[in-house]
Amino acid sequence: MNIDGNAIVSGIRLFALTTTARGGRGRAGGTRPAFELLDEDIEERFVKGSGPGGQKINKVRNCVQLTHVPSGVSVSCQDSRELHANRHIARKRLKEKVEFQLMGADSKVGRRINKIRNKKARSQRKSRLKHQGAAATAAAASEKQPEPALSNDEKMMMAGGSGTGEAVDSASEVDKEESDWEDSGSNEAGR
């Protein structure tokens, strides 16, 4: 593909490019080349459609198939019941496909794809930063000084033992207290 003046030379034929202003949208003074399809390069066929529609879809040829001969790109459209509407939609789609094939990221479709990719990357970056901030806060909370492990004597004193070596199982006493509390709570709820 070579750019020669105001046309792109792609193998067989020339594709017309014109410069259009952005019409007040976007950056000031920005112009981009507009891609124009030449009518003599388009092969147009009308075929019977497919899908829902009953008897009518089997009788009417309102599906439009367009082929851009130099590039070999083809599209098919049966979005509407009317032939003229399908022709218009098919030409628009063919123009976008050929422009994307020739110009890549500089085409209208390519710019739209890049815009969506950038937006998705930006939102993922923001989400990652947000979750990293939440994870850092959780990590800071978990990094608080852990309570030191209690010795057996300290456990016995907390359980009510004298600390003189009496063997008191603090876990079983705590369990008893919890079960007593649960029993009293269930009686309260039943009243």
Automatic annotation (TrEMBL):
Bias-annotated ranges (Basic residues): 116-131
Statement: the UniProt record of this protein carries the keyword Transit peptide: yes
GO MF annotation: an example: translation release factor activity
Keyword terms of this UniProt record: Mitochondrion, Transit peptide
A GO term from the CC aspect: mitochondrion
Record localization: Mitochondrion
Residue ranges of domain Prokaryotic-type class I peptide chain release factors in the record: 36-128
InterPro entries: Mito_Transl_Release_Factor, Pep_chain_release_fac_I, Pep_chain_release_fac_I_sf
Top-level taxon in the UniProt lineage: Eukaryota
Keyword Cell inner membrane: no
Bias (Acidic residues): 175-185
Family statement drawn from the similarity comment of this UniProt entry: Belongs to the prokaryotic/mitochondrial release factor family.
This protein's name: Prokaryotic-type class I peptide chain release factors domain-containing protein
